[in-house]
Amino acid sequence: MPKHSWPNSRLSNANRHNKSTASESIKAVAIYEIVKGLGALLGAVALWRWHSNLELWLQTATVSWQRNFGKILAPQIESSVQIAQRASQNWPLFLLFICIYATIRFVEAYGLWQDKTWAYWFSVLGYGIFIPVEVYYLVTSPFDWFKLFILLLNIIIVIIVYRNMKRKGLI
Fold it and tell me: What pLDDT score was predicted for residue 22?
């Protein structure tokens, strides 16, 4: 057995426990990135498939949403419809942007899952830079629970990644 290996010591178990906890929290952030990337790809497929009849599809989807869910997320639905209407005017360019966004999400998820230093920095800066913008929109527009949820989620992700960076000695 090597001189510095203490498999049964408390110190070794504590270190393994800290690594495990940090690793699981980072994997949760990576899974969130994968979900965002998959959501973007679903949007890209919808745009590619229905770009010629997008107005009709949006109207049908909006009416269906309102019938099933009422006013829940109404501002987000309205915003998504407006973005989709703009996207239909130049759909190949929007399709490209959506695919680039999804690729970035998947690359970040891979880097976090593989415990890569660059992914930690990319994640903490990528989420952190939007926090002031989200606070601004939350303060200047009518109150919206969804915007508050997204702000809190981004703050939590920054804290998780920052704490893991600290544990790894990156900052």
Answer: 43
- Other CB atoms within a 10 A radius of the CB of residue 98 amount to 22
Are 105 and 33 within 8 A, CB to CB? yes
- Is the pTM for the entire model greater than 0.90? no
DSSP 54-107: HHHHHHHHHHHHHHHHTTTTHHHHHHHHHHHHHHHHTHHHHHHHHHHHHHHHHH
Q: What is the dihedral of CA 41, 103, 169, 8, to 10 degrees?
A: 60
Q: How many percent of the chain have pLDDT more than 70?
A: 85
What are 42's two structure tokens? 């679903």
Record the tokens describing residue 152, joined without a space. Answer: 């809190």
Between the CA of residue 82 and those of 75, 85, 135, 152, 168, what are the distances in Å? 11, 5, 22, 25, 43
Q: Average of pLDDT values for 31-59?
A: 84
Query: Tokens representing 9?
Result: 């010591």
